[in-house]
Each structure stands twice: as structure tokens, then as C-alpha cells.
Amino acid sequence: MILPVHQDTFNLCPSLVYSVARSITDGKSQHGFIEVQNRYEQLEDFCALDPQLGSVALFSVEGEILYPQGAAGQDLSFLQGLYATIESENKPAGVFTEKGQVVSYQRSEYSGWLTVLYNSTTAIVPFGFQFIAVAVLLFLALTLGTLVVLRYLTNRLTAPLVNLNKALSEVSLDNLSLALPDSGDTVEIQNINKSFQMMFSQLRVAIAHSVQSRANEERANYLALQSQLNPHTIYNTIGMIESVSYMHGGEVVAKLCRQFSQMLRYISDYSERQYIVRDELQYLQNYTALIERRYDGKLGVEITVEESLLQKAISAPPLQRIT
Predict the structure, then answer these.
(1) Is 313 helix (H, G, I), strand (E, B) or coil?
(2) Any residues with CB less than 8 A from the CB of 196 and at least 6 apart, and which?
């Protein structure tokens, strides 16, 4: 059996002990007993708690207060009330609240002693707040760590795009090249870089072709303008010779210049798609007049055309070939 707290009578200096005792018997008569003692100080050390964590009470099977020893007054009444409430519940363990105290108890299956832990609700709430504060701090720390990791990953993922945007901003007609730093294992950015390089290469070729085409067009316009200016220069020069000839009595030279000028104007006019026989005949007469003058009257040409044919139109001036 388990003996409650008592004075050690076997020691010259008695002290409080609690012990386990067993009788020695042969089944017929009792010859003595054995007692194994433990010092009560050990029980006090075991049951002593930080006041913020609560207090411990220990009851024997009979309801005697084993710990704390010397309880009196309100403390004694409170502990006796706790024991009565626990006994009324008739449970080996449980939790309840009484007189502003949160009470938790457990009965030993071996000794039958009842261990009770109780603490004020006002003391538990700050502890709960501390727990919540610690949990919040842990949550904030985890959130901050997550944000840092996300920032790092975001910067790593967006860095190639930032470099691409910066490189594109430096592209111009004078600088059709795209230089990107090595993007490491970012295959997509490497593919984009290759696509841009190919696009810029094709763009350079297209611009070169466009410039060449523009140059060819400008040259063609220049040649066309030159071809328009040259006949006018000739006409003006011949007109000047004709005027000077008249002024100095060279009527024959003036007439030849006028005939030659009319021939040039006629054969250089490409605006018409159809020609009149009368105009062709006038051209032929001017031509034969120049030939007759060239051979000094040794050549004579007579042209006879029906009057009804003079207004006929022809698609091309065949007589130009003999010029």
C-alpha cells in the first residue's frame, strides 16, 4: 500500500516522507512489513511549477491533500472544493473551470492518487496572446521569406525581358542590330534573340533593296528629264540659228533650220498613239527638202496622195525609220 505524507519515525532527525509499504506474511500470520520511503522534498521539487504555468495539487485516495502541505484558509477551502467537484464527475481525467480557474486533473491507475493542475484564466490568456504573437511573427517571417524568394525568382525571370526591351530601344535605322547578353538556360529568350536577329537581317536586305530601287527610280526620272531637256535645247538652238540667219539675210539657212526643227519635234513627240497621214506627209516633205539641199538639187522627189487619205489615222509613224 501507499502511505501518505508522514513523519519518518526511523530517523533520529524526523522529516516528511511518503512511502510504499508491504506486509510480510506466510498466509497465516503477519511477521512484519517493508517500507520504502521517499523524501517529501523530492515530491515538492517535482510538483513545483513556474507561477505563470499554474499550480499543482496532489490528493490521496482518501482525499487527503498530499501537496501542498500546510494549506489553510481560502487555499484549503479551494482545494477541498476542487476535490469534491472532481469526485462528483466520477471520471479518471478531465478539464473544467471553477472560480476563475482552469482545472485539469488525472487519477493514477497504480496509486489512486489524484494530480490536479490549475491556473487562473487571466494568466492563461496572456500566454495565449504570447502564443498568437509568436505564431504571427512566424507567419510574417515566412511571408517575408516567401516574398524575398519570389522577388529573386521574378527578377531572374524578367531580367532577360528587361535586357531585350533595353536592346530594342537602341535599335534604329542606323543601328539594325540586337545585342543581348547570354541568358543562360532561358531557351525562350534565346529563341526570341535568334528571331530578332533574323528579322533584322531580312530588314537590312529589304532596306538595301528599297534604297537601290529608289536610286534606280531617281536615275530613271533623271534620264527621263534629261531626254525631255535635250530636245528642247536642240529646238531652242535651231530656233536661235534660224533667227540669226534671217537677221543676216540667210533665208535659205533659216528655212532649213525651220524644216529640221519641225522634223525633230515630230519624231520626239511620243504622247500620241495615232498619227494623221497629213502630218506624216508634212514630215516627209521636210525630210526630202533637206535631202535635196544636201545633194544640191541632184535629187528630186515628187509626192502624190489622194485628198481623201490626208485625214486617215495610222497607229505608228512608219516614216520615222528612214531618218
Answers:
(1) strand
(2) 168, 178
